[in-house]
Amino acid sequence: MRRILGIALAVLLLGGVAAVALAGGEKKPPTAPKTVVKGVIGSEKSEYFRDPDVVKALADKGYTVKTETSGSWAMDQLALKEFDFAFPSSSEPATEIEAAAGVKGAQTTKPFFSPLVVIARPNAAKVLADNNLAKMTGKNSGTLLMGPYLKAAGEDRKWQQLSGSAAFAELTGTVFIKTTDPATSNSGALFLAAASNVANGNGVVSDQAAIDRTAPLMQKLISVQGALEPSTDDPFRAFISGSGEPLILAYESQVASLLQQEQPPGDMVVLYPDTTVNSPHTFVPISENAKELGSLLATDPKLRRLAVRHGFRPQNGVPEFTAATAAHTAYLNAELTGIRQVSAPTVKILMALAARAKG
């Protein structure tokens, strides 16, 4: 009996040792600590930072990124010391953010950019094209002719005054493009930058005389809209859902992201303004924790691919964008053919224009 008990205990002991060894063998090495950073971003980048693949790619590089949204031109009014970085939608507000955060001269990065587009209902696009305010390049794509469009806006032209509009009962009232608030939102501000350039004889507005010369037309562009949205996200979603105005200002990235995710674009025509100001999303590091994050977003191959998937154009990445959106040329002008790209006025000039435009 003692011998049997001894053998049984030995077996149990060996089993326990084996179990401990196996358990020890299955233990995973401790994961590297993550650097947790908090940033304030433009709303058009929310889906990018929420994407599980982006979250994982950043985690693999040692970052956990938390974000809040704000209009790009309103970021300098926030308590920026509560954030590790700011990521406005263009370079113009970045200088104001640096000054407000006390990090003037910080090493900013421009990981990607996106041009402005006007998305239109097919009937609205047809009427614009038939009246030489736009030029169609396909069923779902074309160019907004800024000179003729601004002339119509300056004359307070109504849809009913445009040839062919009588066939479409939904086209009523003054012809206008629904933008965001140019005093707080980047897309609205840059639309004024492009429009004022055309109104100023194809030159950047750079002094008070040019502000005075172009401000009346800028006011017509904005005042006709009524309540202004703080960001591009809400009017874009309203348009896709079938509501909203027949002409909406948006970023190309919003359209390209929708198409690449194979979501139904609805009855949408994408018009590229023939004069535009590109929107280089500019990463401003505020704390040491975020100092290298902007460079990572710009250079890491996986993060660049994910940026393209969300519709953004990586810096020096035209081939990447063109290849990724090859199936969607019916909507997108990947090479920006026929588009004149102009510089924006200084922050001071652009904000003065926005203030005059809002009355």
Short description:
By secondary structure, the chain is α/β, with parallel strands linked by helices.
Supply the key terms.
single chain; 359 residues; alpha/beta; six-stranded mixed beta sheet; five-stranded mixed beta sheet; 14 helices; disordered N terminus
Please provide a written account of the structure.
- This protein is α/β, with parallel strands linked by helices and 359 residues long.
- It is built from 14 helices and 13 strands.
- Strand 6 (134-138) and strand 7 form a beta hairpin.
- Helix 8 (208-223) crosses helix 14 (347-357).
Layout of helices and strands, plus pairs?
Blueprint: H1 2-26, E1 35-41, H2 46-50, H3 52-60, E2 63-69, E3 85-87, H4 92-101, E4 109-114, E5 116-120, H5 122-130, E6 134-138, E7 141-144, H6 146-154, H7 186-199, H8 208-223, H9 233-240, E8 247-251, H10 252-260, E9 269-273, E10 275-276, E11 279-285, H11 293-299, H12 301-309, E12 313-314, H13 318-324, E13 340-341, H14 347-357
Parallel strand pairs: 1-2, 1-3, 7-9, 10-13
Antiparallel strand pairs: 3-11, 4-11, 4-12, 5-8, 5-9, 6-7
